[in-house]
Write a structure and sequence with these properties.
Elements: H1 2-18, E1 26-36, H2 37-41, H3 56-66, E2 81-83, H4 86-91, E3 112-118, E4 123-128, E5 137-144, E6 150-152, E7 166-170, H5 171-180, H6 183-191, E8 198-204, E9 213-219, E10 225-234
Parallel strand pairs: 1-10, 7-8
Antiparallel strand pairs: 1-3, 2-4, 4-9, 5-6, 5-10, 8-9
Helix pairs in contact: 5-6
Length: about 250
């Protein structure tokens, strides 16, 4: 009887030993900054404006931002990184992150930055949603996950196309899917490539006088990682701002 009891205890302990341990929290950072198109392009070498390209010019750009050496006149200060509300995070396949975004542009700290602890394999979602009539078009981006920084042009593609790191769609189309809770399931999961740890969806504003919105989707990796996003803006072609100085406030979304 004692031998049988000891055997069952041993089997039970062995079973506990092979059970998967719960994933521990990992610290992540996301840094974002908005630049004028001309300022961004001035750093790049020939060939680095190709979609998905990397190179010494992009590395020098990143170093200039990290060290706070980028001229202040190269930055746009009217658009900052924001967390999204929990229903919107869920609609984009993400989890709610409770963390405060520190705005950049002060002294040597040029990046907007947010730090949080999360579980590997989950997604977090962030947005830059300017309410301005100046430099309305998100023209290109540079994104960095665990690897090197790369430059991308956002393309409008169908759900049957190959996935890309940066895509764009009408903003009211994205809002419709947010309200239905299907932005990730029915759209972004079918077009956005997150193999590099971070991807971007540009919501092209249906009113061309006002600025686009940018959703940044982070795929949280197994190791602590600092993700980076350089957003590059220009004035939208064939738009006339007139005397408008600011647009509607979307902060409540």
């Amino acid at each position: 009887m004692r031998v049988r009891l000891a055997l069952w205890v041993g089997v039970g302990l062995l079973g506990l030993a092979v059970l998967p341990l719960p994933a521990s929290a990992v610290e992540y950072r996301l840094q974002a900054v908005s630049l004028f198109d001309e300022s961004f392009s001035s750093f790049l070498k020939r060939g680095e404006l190709a979609d998905g390209a990397t190179g010494p010019g992009l590395e020098r750009l990143q170093e200039s931002l990290d060290r706070g050496e980028m001229p202040k006149g190269a930055l746009l200060y009217d658009r900052h990184l924001q967390a999204v509300r929990e229903p919107i995070a869920r609609a984009w396949g993400g989890v709610r992150v409770r963390a405060e975004v520190r705005q950049g542009g002060l002294e040597q700290e040029l990046w907007d930055e947010v730090r949080w602890e999360g579980k590997p394999g989950e997604q977090s979602v962030w947005v830059v949603a300017p309410s301005t009539t100046k430099n309305q078009e998100l023209h290109r981006l540079a994104l960095k996950g665990p690897g090197v920084i790369r430059q991308f042009l956002p393309y409008a593609i169908s759900v049957n196309s190959a996935k890309l790191d940066a895509v764009k769609a009408p903003l009211n189309f994205l809002w419709l899917h947010e309200e239905r809770g299907t932005a990730w399931q029915q759209y972004a999961s079918r077009v956005l490539d997150l193999r590099n740890g971070i991807g971007a969806v540009v919501g092209v504003n249906h009113n061309p006088l006002f600025a686009d919105h940018v959703y940044l989707v982070v795929s949280q990796g197994a190791e602590p990682t600092t993700y980076k996003a350089v957003l590059v803006w220009r004035r939208r072609e064939h738009s006339d701002r007139g005397n408008l100085e600011s647009g509607p406030n979307f902060d409540s979304r």
